[in-house]
Amino acid sequence: ILLDKDGKRKHTRPTFSGQQIFALEKTFEQTKYLAGPERARLAYSLGMTESQVKVWFQNRRTKWRKKHAAEMATAKKKQDSETERLKGASENEEEDDDYNKPLDPNSDDEKITQLLKKHKPGGGGLLLH
């Protein structure tokens, strides 16, 4: 028994065995909440107190929620960036309408030069005379 500076009993954190943690995790996969009788049965079979099982499940649910929230945020960011990418692609398609149309033989050199500059880095390197 550990005592604090005032001589009172100091609370120690329980250390669970690998087998206990494995059984707790397996149970948690099946159900996130345990009713009283289930908790008592599990605690007895693992050599733990009901209070230890209860607190372990509370802590495990908190960890699960945080992980789930982080995964949802990541999925939302991915979805938002894909939406932006698709939106940008459709805007570019609209801008490219002139570029994708057959060239009018009566187009002036300025219009052709602008199209080339718009779609080729450095203006395409072509000079029209």
From TrEMBL:
One Gene Ontology term, aspect cellular component: nucleus
Cell compartments where the protein resides: Nucleus
A UniProt-annotated Pfam family: Homeodomain
SMART domains reported for this sequence: HOX
Homeobox domain: residues covered: 7-67
InterPro entries registered for this protein in UniProt: HD, HD_metazoa, Homeobox_CS, Homeobox_NK-like, Homeodomain-like_sf, HTH_motif
GO biological process: cell differentiation
Keyword tags: DNA-binding, Homeobox, Nucleus
Cross-referenced PANTHER family: HOMEOBOX PROTEIN NKX, HOMEOBOX PROTEIN NKX-6.1
Name this polypeptide is given: NKX61 protein
Record organism: Sinosuthora webbiana
Gene: Nkx61
